[in-house]
Amino acid sequence: MNLTLEEIQNFKGKYPKQIWSLFFSEMWERFCFYGMRGMLVFFMISQLKFGDEQANLQYGATQAFVYAFTFVGGLFADKILGFRRSLFWGGILMIIGSLILAANPHDYFFLGISFTVVGTGFFKPNISTMVGKLYKPNDTRTDAGFSLFYAGINLGALLGGYLCIAIGKGEMFSHLIPESKRWNVAFGLAAIVMVVSLINFIFTQRSLGPIGLAPQKINKDGSFSPLEKWKEYGVYTLSLIFIPLIMIMVSVPQYTDYFMWTVGPLTLLYLFYEMTKVTAPERKKLWAALIFIIFSILFWGIYEQSGGSLSIFAANNLNKDLFGLDPNGVNNSGGAFFIIFLAPLVGLLWIWLSKKKLEPNTINKFGLGFIFLGLGYYILFGTKFFANLQGITSLNIFTIALLVITFGELCLSPIGLSIMTKLSTEKLQGMMMGMWFLASAYGQYVAGQIGAGLAKVKSGATNHDALITYTDGYKQLGLYALIAGVILILISPFVKKLMQGVK
Ligand code: GLN
């Protein structure tokens, strides 16, 4: 099945058929990633005997590094490996990381995690870029495709996020797995699904035509030849060298601060350098992409309270009025649950609106994303009006807030992936996707700072005082999100000009 790019992109119907294979590879990868992520803090506290604060700081550091490495992964994919090989290499590193953790999570915890950090950096941005390649630059069905892909992401997140920790804690299959082996099996499961992801990708490759092949060198006579092999092996070696470095960096949280303060400016400088090499219209599009990237930092900074302050809020201030469900479980997986159902519907809504010429453009979708996020945070604030004297309030209302926030996420996150592929030049696709995720690294970082600020409830304060402090904080965040949404909508004519017809 040797398809040309033309044949792939000229598909009939709503979705290109290759999207399903990418959907499944990404679903299993996210299973592995979120499965592991969901175990980190719990494992560090219960097994490695870390204090709460240290465990949280180290969790934050791993998250920041994971997303920061997507930039490196994207960059090397553009310049040397191509998307397919990068994805493979990343997948193999993730498998090795999970196997190390499966073999001996207690002694080699940070080694295993560091393999996963670098592996995700090579896998995550590049599979997303390949989804974009299935579409012609101005195909109005692209956003819907990314919404579907996003459902796959969250299906994996939901399954992995639930199963791995449940096995590790002995809440599932405890009669089959001896107690001393539970964590090994839980991490082992992450390795198995990652193998499934790669096997699935091997079959997918056949239908991808030229998409994701390694870049080639242009010779003087205009012909193409493959890049030198040492460059490819150089990337592999370099990424292995990064692993012990990350182990050191993650172990001292302060290093993460230094890292974050240096990496961002350096990346920007590099982007500006690349911008000097493109044409003026291409440069304008890259500026537009940068605007989206910068706003997304604020979005994730607010959104990612879910892993931090909201999980403390869920543990201390919520009842179980939603079918008796555990509030932390709802906080962890409610968003993913809603997305699986809503993402395909929202995708179809975009296609339907575009047929009626009513589809909001990307910048307005981003604006809407912030507005939903803001409204969701106002609902979180509103939970305080349903609280009892002990400061315990309704999980139902909290879940409604999650639903509204999820709508916001769907207007921004899959759309962001889609627009990165459309605004980048051919040679900067991977790097720009990496930058999009790098913004998530900063989002996580900012989220940690905001969360830590909120957590500073004075000692001696009651649970009710804590409720007031948290909900007031959420009102503030809701306001910031609304302001950002309004700003985006106000600057939309200007950004539209920069985008030059890209929607
Ligand atoms: N939840 C999405 C994913 O895992 C988005 C992550 C992000 O960009 N922060 O892909």
Written overview of the protein:
With 503 residues, the chain is mostly helical. The chain has one domain: Growth Hormone, Chain: A (Up-down Bundle), CATH 1.20.1250. Helices cover 76% and strands 1% of the residues. It has 16 helices and 2 strands. It has a two-stranded antiparallel ribbon. A hairpin with a 5-residue loop joins strand 1 (216-218) and strand 2 (224-226). The longest helix is centred in the first third of the chain and has 52 residues, at 52-103. The radius of gyration is 22 Å and the shape is globular. It starts with a helix and ends with a helix. The model has no long low-confidence stretch (mean pLDDT 91). Bound molecules: glutamine. The site of glutamine has 6 residues, from helix 14.
User: What's the quaternary structure here?
Assistant: single chain
Strand order of the largest sheet: 1-2
Termini distance? 32 Å
* Structural class designation: mainly alpha
Number of domains: 1
Superfamily (CATH H level) name:
MFS general substrate transporter like domains
Cα shape = globular
Protein name: Proton-dependent oligopeptide transporter, POT family
InterPro entries: Dipep/tripep_permease, MFS_trans_sf, MFS_Transporters, POT_fam, PTR2_symporter_CS
Organism: Epilithonimonas zeae
Keywords: Cell membrane, Membrane, Peptide transport, Protein transport, Transmembrane, Transmembrane helix, Transport
